[in-house]
Design goal:
The complex is a heterodimer of chains A (about 450) and B (about 425).
Chain A (H helix, E strand, L loop, with lengths): L26 E4 L5 E6 L5 E8 L13 H9 L8 H10 L3 E6 L4 E8 L3 H13 L5 H18 L3 H14 L11 H5 L3 H11 L5 E7 L3 H12 L22 E6 L6 E8 L8 H13 L4 H9 L7 E6 L4 E9 L4 H17 L4 H16 L5 H13 L6 H10 L3 H11 L6 E6 L1 H8 L4 E6 L7
Parallel strand pairs in A: 2-6, 7-11, 7-12
Antiparallel strand pairs in A: 1-2, 3-5, 3-6, 4-5, 8-10, 8-11, 9-10
Chain B lengths: L8 E4 L5 E6 L5 E8 L13 H8 L3 E2 L2 E2 L2 H7 L4 E6 L4 E8 L3 H13 L5 H20 L11 H5 L3 H4 L6 H6 L2 H11 L5 E7 L3 H12 L22 E7 L6 E7 L6 H14 L5 H9 L3 E8 L10 E8 L5 H18 L3 H20 L8 H14 L4 H10 L3 H11 L5 E8 L2 H6 L1
Parallel strand pairs in B: 2-8, 9-13
Antiparallel strand pairs in B: 1-2, 3-7, 3-8, 4-5, 6-7, 10-12, 10-13, 11-12
Classes of the chains: A alpha+beta (about 450), B alpha+beta (about 425).
Chain lengths: ~450, ~425
């Protein structure tokens, strides 16, 4: 085995003094109709980027139908009371704009980017889609049929199957357990359901408009008031969701994909949301474990052993819950060997304090990468969105680096013991049963499913 | 509309290494790249996939930075790094806080000077690359479709038609002697460009480049095989089995004109008229109107960066109730219409605004969180292929002056059946799949 300790050659140039990282000021406002707006200047290119978020997504519509918020977003762009689908697409092209509508677990959104000189027409289009979508019957029918093909197709992707199964086992009866609708559920969608979701979710009081780019904030805010001002609507009622299950003990779930020439491993456990005070500690722990190229897991199972191309760990933050997970697509004959190393590195972080030098490297990594968002409009928009959607403190961006740099080996040891829950990891493997069943069974009680989700044994 | 004026300075060192700097102090971040003018198109015969395997070896150790240290030094400086192999160039790039500039330049210089790798490194990366091919191609529905499926059907010259990710037998056959020979032949300073984009003062960047790179010896001018194709005079078709996916698929590729010829700009806008998102004629007709297709996308890949025979490719996944011939007939109708009627003045005006807007985004666009990867890529391609990094500021002019007649002419000249290749990728029967 190759040695892991690498002495730094003295010829390596030292880092010169850091240039100050300065985050641009955020202009916050609330329009007369209740719509919250955040504007940030960035003059890198003569364009601007924006998101109109609504704080309700697929989870808020779960009782009416899984995936219904997403279908609502999809159909919302296909026609308004003023413009038919073709007109919408041509008008967007005419002003050089891109636009996408979508919904995740906790939000629905209209994302857009365009030339600054056409800012008002683009905002006008966003307003029209948010307020006056017509949900034409024929467009709805077409999108539903498309979706039926898509849900069949995704069941052939190892990454999807692994993620779907992990969410099921981590969240049990909680709505977060379902990442995608079944064919039957899609077939049952009604246009009226979409209209109801649209009228409940797409309101200014439920909205958050983020704008980043080449504009003067005061002038842009005036445009926003002019364009969105007439729109009215209340915040929807939010319903409390059932608590999520917390599985105990390692268990293994094999999704049988006949003929697979590789095995997708995905293991996870419950963790925390973005608002949790331990978030930054867990972020740093994750980057040491498997969140960076230079992390322990990547160095071990890729650079040392050659088991996989793409090992990674990460924290998925949903509004109500978060979970930690580790993934790797590995050679079929090293599934057990890979899992052994995945747990070895996890247990090591839980048992032995991280050496100071390694900690400093990881702190530099995380704080450096965090500032890259500054350099582009889209990067900045992403950072602003995380702060705003999670209701983090206003100075979160400014304070982040100092918080990362203040952490100690003891903090990380405590964090790893708390959240890298080795003993209760739920392990999903997607691959050909004949090749991997005996290896998978070494790690806990085994259940086997087919790609359709049917229990085989 | 605002005109682009990006500050660009460039020079050539005594050993032939070109250095290009585009300063911008928006953020204290600098993106550094080294591009070598060799990609998978002209990798050695009998060594398919070697250019990419070699790219992996560049992270395995150099004279003063042994294995793992390159990655560790970039990450621990607060930066990210990667490399990628293209048809005609291979790149290595880092985005770091600007206080790490000299360190990054030193690391790139160290591996340009001498690669220090052994058999264990090669075995390790061969295994890693095989898992990369499995995760992206062999174990994915429609993996490698159509970028690996079309070339063997479309082209006759091995340079353009072979498996760019590599047959496993060829990957196994590659040895350390191949690695060092490839390095010595193509990874010479006179076949490369060094780029710095972002928070760097040009005079400081040039001084560092001179200090760290000027004494790396130049090599003989690398030999480049001729990638020219014999004239195509018939439609070419091929079939590939889809092992996992549920929908029948097809890809249609038409050979496009060489870069920077008069037809190039017209072809690019014609491509946009056909493939430009939901407003594009193909998506509108096949997905939105006739509803034959479930997914449709395509275009000329990396339009500023190819240096040999290339196609404009349409990728279609269609509903199983339509036969391949029916789906193809729907596609052909769109092509026929544009060959007969061309596009309107209004459409052309829309296409130009969108083209310019997309170009701005391309410059700023990231690649795995890497700011301004696009600007770096264009500067590199315009330097290595055209010797003119300033083209970043002027290349738009050609596209914005295209006329309707030129688009009509391009449609007639290039969208001909005898100039195209089609690959059908059809799902194997469910029963067969279970037995496999």
């Amino acid at each position: 085995m190759a040695t892991r300790l690498v002495e730094v050659n003295e010829a390596v140039p030292a880092l010169s003094p850091e240039r100050q990282v300065t985050w641009p000021s955020r202009k916050r406002a609330r329009l007369s109709n209740g719509l919250e707006v955040i504007l940030v200047e960035s003059h890198t290119i003569p364009k601007f980027h924006g998101d109109l978020y609504f704080r309700s997504g697929n989870m808020a519509a779960i009782d009416r139908g899984p995936g219904l918020a997403e279908m609502t977003a999809t159909v919302a762009r296909t026609g308004t009371t003023k413009r038919a689908s073709r007109q919408i697409e041509e008008d967007l092209r005419r002003i050089g704009a891109d636009l996408a509508t979508s919904a995740g677990s906790d939000t629905s959104s209209i994302s857009f980017a365009g030339l600054s000189e056409f800012a008002e027409p683009l905002l006008g289009m966003v307003d029209e889609l948010a307020r006056e979508a017509a949900f034409p019957e024929a467009e709805f029918e077409r999108e539903r049929r498309q979706k039926l093909e898509e849900v069949k197709l995704e069941r052939t992707q190892p990454g999807f199957l692994a993620g779907e199964r992990l969410r099921k086992v981590l969240f049990g009866t909680h709505p977060y357990a379902q990442v995608s609708p079944s064919e039957e559920q899609v077939a049952a969608y009604k246009r009226d359901d979409l209209l109801a979701v649209y009228s409940d979710f797409y309101t200014p009081e439920n909205g958050l408009l983020l704008l980043v780019g080449d504009f003067q904030p005061d002038a842009m805010l005036k445009s926003a008031e002019k364009v969105f001002g007439a729109w009215q609507g209340k915040k929807p009622q939010t319903q409390a969701l059932a608590a999520a299950a917390t599985p105990h003990g390692r268990r293994v779930y094999l999704v049988h994909l006949p003929g697979a020439v590789q095995t997708q491993i995905l293991a996870g456990c419950h963790a925390i949301t973005r608002k949790h005070p331990d978030w930054i500690k867990l972020g740093l722990t994750n980057s040491l474990y498997g969140g960076a190229f230079n992390s322990r897991l990547v160095m071990n199972i890729r650079e040392d052993k050659g088991y996989t191309y793409s090992p990674r760990s990460g924290i998925s933050a949903l509004r109500q819950h978060g979970y930690f997970s580790v993934s790797a697509a590995v050679r079929n004959d090293v599934v057990a060997a890979s899992l052994t190393e995945i747990f070895y590195e996890m247990d090591k972080l839980r048992s032995v304090p991280v050496p100071e030098a390694e900690l400093a490297d990881a702190q530099n990594y995380l704080s450096g990468v965090f500032s890259m968002g500054l350099a582009t409009q889209n990067g900045l928009l992403g950072q602003i969105a995380v702060v705003a959607l999670n209701e983090l403190p206003d100075d979160y961006l400014e304070k982040y680096r100092a918080k990362v740099r203040a952490l100690t080996p003891a903090d990380l040891l405590e964090t790893a013991r708390k959240y890298l829950d080795s003993a209760n990891m739920q392990i999903v493997v997607v691959g050909d049963r004949a090749q991997i069943e005996s290896q998978a069974a070494l790690f806990g009680e085994l259940e086997i499913f087919d790609a359709q989700g049917k229990l085989l044994s | 509309m605002k005109r682009l004026q990006i500050a660009i300075e460039s020079t050539t060192l005594v050993n032939g290494l070109k250095v290009v700097i585009a300063p911008d102090t928006t953020a204290p971040v600098v993106t550094v790249g080294v591009y070598y003018k060799i990609g998978f198109r002209l990798e050695p015969r009998g060594r398919s996939g070697f250019a990419h395997l070699f790219e992996h070896m560049m992270f395995q150790g150099s004279a003063n930075a042994p294995k793992m240290q390159h990655i560790k030094l970039i990450n621990s400086s607060g930066g990210v790094l990667n490399g990628s192999t293209h048809y005609d160039v291979t790149n290595y790039y880092e985005a770091v806080p600007s206080n790490a500039l000299e360190r990054v330049l030193w690391l790139e210089a160290d591996r340009m000077r001498a690669l220090k790798v052994d058999d264990e490194n090669l075995r390790n990366q061969r295994d890693v690359v095989k898992e990369e091919v499995r995760v992206n191609v062999l174990n994915q529905p429609y993996g490698g479709f159509p970028w690996l499926d079309l070339p063997p059907v479309a082209f006759r010259n091995w340079a353009n038609s072979h498996n760019f990710y590599g047959d496993f037998n060829d990957l196994d056959a590659a040895d350390l002697a191949d690695v060092q020979a490839f390095f010595k032949t193509y990874y010479v300073p006179n076949n490369a460009v060094l780029l710095m984009v972002g928070d760097v003062k040009p005079e400081e960047g040039f001084a560092l480049a001179k200090k760290l790179y000027a004494d790396i010896p130049a090599g003989a001018p690398p030999p480049f095989a001729d990638p020219a194709e014999p004239e195509q005079a018939e439609e070419r078709r091929g079939h590939v089995e889809e092992k996992f996916g549920t929908l029948p698929a097809m890809a249609i590729g038409y050979v496009v004109p060489k870069r920077r010829t008069t037809d190039w700009c017209a072809m690019a806008l014609l491509d946009q008229a056909l493939h430009g998102g939901r407003a594009g004629k193909l998506y509108r007709e096949l997905v939105l109107e006739k509803q034959v297709a479930v997914e449709l996308d395509g275009g000329i890949e990396d339009i500023f960066g190819y240096n040999g025979p290339t196609q404009m490719v349409t990728r279609i996944l269609h509903k199983p109730e339509y036969s391949s011939e029916q789906a193809l007939a729907a596609f052909d109708e769109v092509i026929r219409e544009i060959q007969e009627k061309g596009i309107t003045e209004d459409e052309l005006a829309q296409l130009k605004v969108k083209w310019q807007s997309d170009y701005f985004s391309l410059l700023e666009g990231g690649h795995g969180g890497m700011p301004r990867y696009g600007l770096m890529h264009l500067l590199a391609c315009f330097t290595l292929l055209d010797g003119e990094p300033q083209m970043v500021n002027t290349v738009l002019d050609g596209f914005l002056s295209v006329k309707r007649e030129e688009i009509l002419a391009a449609a007639k000249r290039y969208l001909r059946k005898e100039k195209r290749a089609i690959v059908f990728r059809l799902p194997v029967a469910a029963g067969v799949k279970e037995a496999a």
